[in-house]
Structures are given as C-alpha cells and as structure tokens.
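Ticket reopened. Same input as before:
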Amino acid sequence: QVQLKETGPDLVQLTQTLSITCTVSGFSLTTYNVHWVRQPPGKGLEWMGAMWNGGGTDYNSAFKSRLSINRDTSKSQVFLKMNSLQTDDTAKYFCARHNNWGYFDNWGQGVMVTVSS
Amino acid sequence: DTVLTQSPALTVSPGERVTISCRASESVSTSMHWYQQKPGQQPKLLIYGASNLESGVPARFSGSGSGTDFTLIIDPVEADDTATYFCQQSWNEWTFGGGTKLEL
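Engineering reply: fixed in the latest deploy. New output:
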C-alpha cells in the first residue's frame, strides 16, 4: 500500500539548517508528485513546496530562497532542506502525495521539529 | 495568495446534521478539497473536487459548492467525528483554511 514516512531531527538550533527525508513506498516518484506541508503547534497547515514527478520543483514564495527540495528516485526519497531557521519554524513537517486533481491523497505521519536557541 | 476562511469552532450533538463552511478570497472553480485531522495525526482526505467522496470515507460525509463558497456536510454526525476539518484549494497554487474544530 501507499506509505510516506518522514525522518529528521527533533531539535534544530536557531539559524541552523533543517534536513528532512521523506521515504515513500507503494508508488513511484516518477509517476506521482510529493509535496511538503507544515503545521505549527495548534495552528493550521501551510504549503511549502513540491517535487514534481518530472523532477521539477515549486516553492511557496513565503520561504524565499531558504527552501530547497530534491529527490533520489532510486531510493524513493524526497528531501527537504531549509536554512536560517527561526523559532517560528517550529512545526510538524509532513510530506504528502499529490494527485493530479490537486489534492493530497496520502500523508506521512509527520516529524515534529523544534527550533531552539 | 488565495485565502480560505473557515469558522474556528463548532459544537454539536451526535445524530445532528453538521455544516462546515469555507469561503475563498477569489474563485477556485471546484478545486476545493476537505480533510479531517484528529489530534496527533496527519490529515485524512475526505472530499476532493468539491463534491467527490474519497474511497473508504463514509457516505455521511458530503461536499458542495463552487466558485468561492463551499460546504462540508456530515449527516448524521457521530462521536468519532470529533476532529479539525480543513479545506484546501488547488486552483492557485495550494492553500489551506485555518480549520474548523468540531466538538461533540
């Protein structure tokens, strides 16, 4: 069955770089798109960016040049990297499979990241 | 950005018909989708394309709307439906509503 699983640190220091890996199974990264969404504690969902099945990327302009998304199709992994972390980047980070209708039909369990000074 | 506005909270009794609304700041056609999120869990897709029920989701859930005004209906609501419900549009990039917390 379709599965996505995020792995990454629990704690990141202020101004440092966050790296999270999304490992997928049950589908191919060359067929489906994978997006990243985050959720601060007690708050709503924020779209961060996309890895398209053709290898291209799109980013939420709110993250300017801090965010990069890459993939390794041989390992079925999508990578999120975001630098210059601030305390308001404390959030649960999800990867989600994107359907061509525009919705997210499968989500990982998320990884909670705290930015600490 | 296309802003989606939802009422923050709703308290109902089991067996009632529940209507959760989502208003978009501009037309999104029928590119509106609904998710359920329980505490500590990831969002779960309920409705896509404004009115299409995702496979495996109970028929108690339904959706309607187009343009700027959308509705998620739960009828009848059950105790297990206690959760936060988010709308999401995909007409202009991807944005989410702030969520409606449903309590029974």
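The radius of gyration of chain A is 13 Å. Chain A has a mean pLDDT of 96. Please confirm and we'll close it.
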